[in-house]
Design a protein that fits this description.
heterodimer, A: mainly beta, six-stranded mixed β-sheet, 54% strand, globular, B: mainly beta, seven-stranded mixed β-sheet, 0% helix
């Protein structure tokens, strides 16, 4: 069964600290994995898209890693800011298809001053 | 980057009325758009796939007569919630796939529907 699992479910950190979010997937065949940021009451915004051959990709203070062998991905946030407070969603399209995305339940990150 | 807009951003309506939500791709053409529903603290759930010029494909359990989808142009898809009931209150999000590049789906900002 195609599944995407994220941990932790929620996380509270102090402003300026780093954090790492985890994503495990059992989607097959695999083509790419995406991380989205969703602010409360807003639509998801793409942070990174990682293909099978990519191990790491950065977007500003966000760095995503991918281990296709263990089917794990992580999203590392450096020097967190209050505006980083949001849900971070890991998404994998099965078979590389662009529809029927498999969504993780997200990690709700709260950055406190 | 690609921009997808939704209108309205939030709507409150009485039970039994119909509500139309628009999804527009602003700087690209989208042959395919997707409609999602998201309940509080839950994941996005795909409701239907909207294809320009043809009938939408609905996910299992989604009533096609209740959630009418029209994709009349390459930049506009509409979702009409007919005879809305309080249980239809939710956050509705559309996404659009760039026809030219077949790149990832770009999500709209969402529409908050509250049915009284």
């Amino acid at each position: 069964k195609n599944q995407v699992e994220q941990s932790p479910q929620s996380l509270i950190i102090l402003e300026g600290k780093n954090c790492t979010l985890q994503c495990n997937y059992t989607v097959s065949p695999f083509s790419n994995l995406r991380w989205y940021k969703q602010d409360t009451g807003r639509g998801p915004v793409s942070l990174t898209i990682m293909t099978f051959s990519e191990n790491t990709k950065s977007n500003g203070r966000y760095t995503a890693t991918l281990d296709a062998d263990t089917k794990q991905s992580s999203l590392h946030i450096t020097a967190s800011q209050l505006s980083d407070s949001a849900s971070y969603i890991c998404v994998v399209p099965p078979g590389g298809s662009q529809g029927n995305l498999i969504f993780g339940k997200g990690t709700k990150l709260s950055v406190k001053p | 980057g690609a921009v997808v807009s939704q209108h309205p951003s939030r709507v409150i309506c009485k039970s039994g009325t119909s509500v139309k939500i628009e999804c527009r791709s602003l700087d690209f053409q989208a042959t395919t758009m997707f409609w999602y529903r998201q309940f509080p603290k839950k994941s996005l759930m795909l409701m239907a796939t909207s294809n320009e010029g043809s009938k939408a494909t609905y996910e299992q359990g989604v009533e096609k007569d209740k959630f009418l989808i029209n994709h009349a142009s390459l930049t506009l898809s509409t979702l009409t919630v007919t005879s809305a009931h309080p249980e239809d209150s939710s956050f509705y999000i559309c996404s659009a796939r760039d026809t030219l590049t077949q790149e990832t789906q770009y999500f709209g900002p969402g529409t908050r529907l509250l049915v009284l």
